[in-house]
Specification:
- The structure holds 2 protein chains of 2 kinds.
- Chain A contains 8 helices and no strands.
- By secondary structure, chain A is mainly α.
- Chain A has one domain.
- The N and C termini of chain B lie far apart (139 Å).
- The model of chain B has no long low-confidence stretch (mean pLDDT 86).
- The chains are: A mainly alpha, B mainly alpha.
- The interface between A and B is large, with 63 and 51 residues.
């Protein structure tokens, strides 16, 4: 009976323009819309949460302060004292990815972090920033990063090649990690959800059989919530580690 | 992470199955770079991310920072005040202990001197009383001695008279007074000896 059905697992990632002809003319898609929503939510959280300026914080203020503290500690621990300068950038990056991942889990929503164009742009931004910081602080000395002190000169062609490749692979791994995690999770959701619908087509037995994939999807949602937070953390913490390398050169 | 890899693997297997024939033809929408919306995302991302960064770094984050700094200041101030109060309390306690010790020492010396004074007064009183009693005793002894002497003198006369009467009654002879007195005197002397 399932012959007529196909599972459209990737259709959820298709982009369509929103906001009518105006949106279409400026290429404003669901993805872009969700970026605006998550940015607005970040600003609202901080703006409304901190409006009380209470010494003893309320719930919203405590949430805002916890996020601030979490990212701030991460910056200081990973980068060192210089991390203060990069804190607003890391915070922006973390909140942008975190809310992108989390909002994407809502039904009828769109996950902009499931688009390689977005994740690679972010990763490229990170790597350009890291390289710019390293060049600004160390000048030409930065290139010694590709050849560790004390290594035999004879091996230099090999070592430098490997180091340069590993440096350039950073944005690739950074972007594909986030992209692949998000895509995999959402594909699994779609597949199991399609199973439920197909099962339901088989009558009473199907209704009972549909409980299996439904339960799996419930478990998967808990898992995806973890992945959403974890991947935002991983992206931010790796950016911090790269910045540490840029500031301290090893 | 390992379970994630497993999930991705399962997803790949599913995607290559017949149910996804349609997908295989179309490919991933994320890699469809002919769609202008895919590229326009990057432009919008740049605009939105920059705007978010500027708003966060200039407006939102300084607020959090000021609140956190204010709280830290308030807590530090309170701690300082508490530390000061504790120091004052410690000083007061030390003062109190010192004063108590002093007062105890003063009280002890006063008690000792009072006891000593009372004892001295009692001794003096006892001494005068003793002296008085001694004097009375001596006077009484003198009186007794005198009384005894007079009594012993009277006894000789009574004995002489009684001897005279007894002799007269028994013999009818009126005894010589001098002889009787001598005899009585010798007997008395023998008794007294």
């Amino acid at each position: 009976m399932a012959a007529g059905h196909t599972i459209d697992a990737l259709g959820q990632f298709e982009l369509h323009s929103v906001l009518g002809p105006v949106g279409a003319s400026v290429g404003f898609s669901e993805s872009t819309f969700m970026m605006v929503v998550s940015s607005a939510l970040t600003l609202i959280l901080l703006g409304v949460g901190m409006s009380a300026k209470a010494v003893v914080p309320g719930r919203l203020q405590a949430l805002a302060e916890m996020l601030y503290d979490f990212v701030y500690k991460m910056c200081i621990e990973q980068i060192g004292e210089e991390g203060k300068k990069f804190f607003p950038f890391i915070f922006t990056l973390f909140m942008f990815i975190l809310l992108g991942n989390l909002l994407g889990l809502l039904p009828f929503s769109f996950t902009y972090t499931s688009h390689i164009a977005v994740t690679f742009s972010l990763a490229a931004l990170v790597i350009v920033l890291v390289t710019a910081v390293a060049l600004a602080i160390h000048g030409w000395h930065f290139f010694s990063y590709f050849f560790p002190a004390g290594a035999p000169i004879a091996l230099s062609p090999l070592i430098v090649t490997v180091e340069i490749i590993s440096y350039l692979s950073r944005p690739v791994s950074l972007s594909i990690r986030l992209f692949a995690n998000m895509v995999a999770g959402h594909v699994m959701f779609e597949v199991f959800a399609s199973f439920i619908v197909m099962m339901a087509g088989a009558g009473v037995v199907g209704y009972l059989g549909g409980i299996g994939p439904l339960a799996l999807n419930v478990i998967l949602m808990g898992f995806e919530l973890l992945v959403a937070c974890l991947q935002a953390y991983v992206f931010a913490v790796l950016t911090c580690i790269y910045l540490h390398d840029a500031v301290h050169l090893h | 992470m390992r379970s994630l890899a497993a999930l991705t693997g399962l997803g790949t297997v599913l995607l290559t199955s017949s149910a996804f024939a349609e997908e295989a033809k179309k490919g991933m929408p994320q890699l469809d770079f002919h769609n202008p919306l895919t590229i326009s995302q990057i432009v919008w991302l740049a605009i939105i991310f920059t705007a978010l960064y500027v708003l966060l770094s200039k407006w939102a984050l300084p607020q959090v920072e000021s609140v956190l700094a204010h709280r830290k200041q308030a807590i530090d101030g309170d701690l300082d005040a508490a530390r000061g109060a504790k120091q004052a309390a410690d000083g007061a306690i030390a003062e109190l202990t010192e004063a108590t010790k002093d007062a105890q020492a003063i009280a002890r010396t006063e008690i000792a001197s009072a006891v000593a004074g009372a004892k001295e007064a009692a001794d003096a009183q006892a001494a005068t009383l003793n002296a008085k009693l001694e004097a009375q005793l001596a006077a009484a002894e003198t009186q007794i001695e005198a009384a005894r002497a007079s009594a012993v003198g009277a006894l000789r006369q009574v004995a002489s008279e009684a001897t005279t009467v007894v002799v007269a009654r028994l013999t009818g002879i009126h005894a010589d007074a001098a002889a009787v007195d001598a005899a009585v005197g010798s007997v008395l002397a023998a008794r007294a000896a």
